[in-house]
Amino acid sequence: MRQRLSLAAVALFTSLTLAACKTPGSAARLRAADGSPEAASAATAAQAREAVRKALHYLFETQVKEPDQLAGPVRLEGEWASYVRGSVADDSNLQALYDSNAFVPMFVTYPFFLMDDKGLPAGGQKLSEMSRRTLKLLRRWYLAKNGEVNFWPTIAGFHGPQQIAEALPFARLLGPIFDIANDADDTAVYYVTALKMDPGSVDKDFPKLFAGWLDKDRARRDEREAAWKPDGTGAYMTWMSDEDKPGNKHPIAFKLANNVDCLVLGNVLYAVGLNRKLNGGAAEPTGYKESCALAREVIEKKSYPACALYYPPQWLFPYAVSRAFRDGGNDCLQPSMKPLAQEILAAQKPDGSWDDVGVYANLPADVQSKNPEFRGDARVYSTALNVSTLANVGVAEWPDPAAARAAIESGVRFLVANVVKDDGKEFWQGGVFFSSSYQTVARWKSRPYTTAVVLEAMVKYLRHYGDGDEGGVWKLTENDVPSSWLIGEVTP
């Protein structure tokens, strides 16, 4: 639940949820037969190509392709699975529940933008097929008429977590808890998705949506912000609704404070930059300079991940801000890229991985969850994020180019060695990627999302993205995709 919950609401949610509920592979590194660096790189590249095929196969097989099922259980065409569970109390037996939300399909399709399947036979253009389903899903269930986007869909009059409502019938009576406002985060990522998939459909003035919700002249403040930023920064806030502003008819749940989240900030900067780059949008819309300045300050003071109220992962902010810099073309972030890369390089483990030292990264009850979909520690996810982050930062900003290249390759080897094989499928399983504002209440994991982050890392490695190959749109051939894609006809 993205909204901040009162203690009473938390307790109620916990009691209802509890009442309703009456392994990574070897981390061994690949080695070339003759031990030479050249042969090792060739072997790693071959394994990375195979990992791309595995990831593409898994993502195609697991996207919901059937028409929307709006009850028992809800499944929406175009989405991928994510699961949510919480730990307000001892919840070692708590079931993780399937959750339909906008975040997962938008982020799963992101690495598809690095590839082009138009040269494949019509039946093999599965990337385009998956992307079409995702855009249709977002526009049908999440995009509001005013251009804003929400985390959860509204189905049969209920706005909120549909699957929790089915498991816990009383949840529908808790509408105020779940009836969260539209938010800058999902709205920003939607426009990134639309700009990549269907740029002609995007109004170049959409950044005005964010300008009404800036960190200044606020009616209330989130007390947790004081730990990492001053008041009145002028940066973009999370919620597209505020507590006591004139004309506000959709308050934050329980009328608590709006807030600034550094990860949300990175995603908004990315959308604004991409709009300028691809759509002729304003170079510096209201709030842009202030948001860039705050993002740089976060890196300088190493305020992440504490500055991310909805994203526990240690390495997700570096990924988001590096993406805003490189893919979004936000040069205002350039001064912070070298220290960011240095921090990442210093944290890599001898086996090529990165772990997450955050409080919610590797909770034993999460890692060993009774739900297979929710298992897994943080290392695969953290490693995939940091491989892509280093590639995004690029050779011009690497403090030590040789070390950065070695770190990327070592990270790729770790990922290749840690593919999970289960129930006839191969995929990557990782840690928590998202949470409620109070992170003990609810946390999300997703096999498809983790697999998509690994896919992005593999593609950027293979395309030498760190060295500036932005001709990096990979024109796929029949040798680059699963053989099963070349059999049969495309699904409408």
Give your account of this protein's structure.
The chain is mostly helical. Helices cover about 40% and strands about 5% of the residues. The strands form 4 sheets. A 4-stranded antiparallel beta sheet has the order 2-1-9-8. It has a two-stranded parallel ribbon with strand order 3-10. It has a two-stranded antiparallel sheet with strand order 4-5. Strand 8 and strand 9 form a beta hairpin. It is globular and about 65 Å long. The model is unreliable at about 1-35 (pLDDT under 50).
Q: How much strand? A: under 5%
What class, by secondary structure content? mainly alpha
Order of helices and strands: HHEEHEHEEHHHHHHHHHHHEEEEHE
Question: Are there runs of 5+ residues with pLDDT below 50, and where?
Answer: 1-35
**Overall body shape:** globular
Backbone CA Rg: 21 Å
Q: How many individual β-strands?
A: 10
User: What does the main sheet amount to?
Assistant: 4 strands, antiparallel
Helix content: 25-40%
Q: State mean pLDDT (0 to 100 scale).
A: 87
Q: Order of strands across the biggest sheet?
A: 2-1-9-8
**Count of helical stretches:** 16
Give structural attributes.
492 residues, mainly alpha, four-stranded antiparallel β-sheet, two-stranded parallel ribbon, disordered N terminus
